[in-house]
Amino acid sequence: MQVLKDVSLTVNSREVVALVGDNGAGKSTLIKILTGVYKKDSGEIYWKGKKVEISSPLDAKALGIEVVHQYGALIDGMNVVENFFLGREIVKSYGPIKLLDEKKMMEICSKVLRELGLNIDSMKRDVATLSGGERQGIAIGRCIYFGGELIVLDEPTTFLSIKETEKVLTYIRNAKKMGKSVIVVSHIIRDIYPIADRFVILHKGMKIADLQSGEITREELETAIVSGRLP
Which of 40, 131, 136, 214 is most buried, by the most CB atoms less than 10 A from its CB? Predict the structure, then answer.
């Protein structure tokens, strides 16, 4: 079964691209190919002008492509710093003994999150006590600190309140200001319309449009997603 048909996607530096489409349009499949979860059957991937092969999530990470899933992929029962550095902790050596450098990790974590627009009263807070928007912010900050140049956000505002959604949109704007490119995969047009520089519309596995934000209204975008045709 062919899920995607001759789909091309370009993301420029410091750009927020909204990848939109109804359920089954092919959004998730395209993103999974880009992030190494699925292997492409045909076609080519270019990164900064050079042809590359992305055969695994590790390949994608090595290039600087990071993904944040719907719930931020944080582990409840662990605090903010532990989640931020999970698997990539900073250590200091005392001869043959290595210990976690908790002070340095807390300083880095706090600084990155503040720059992103996320202020948490303590880096020692269990992430289970944080809001959905704050969890997304931690995951985005983690991607940025560990070298993410293209950050893929998969349905980042689903099930969030208006207040929490605004927090996530602020994090996306600030990530762009920090020099990052962002792909936002979403079916909630009212959330992503204000922040996207460009809209790529998929319908039944095909790209039907690639438009700058000023070239289509929110209502026209919603109609195109459902009908598969531009107004």
Answer: 136
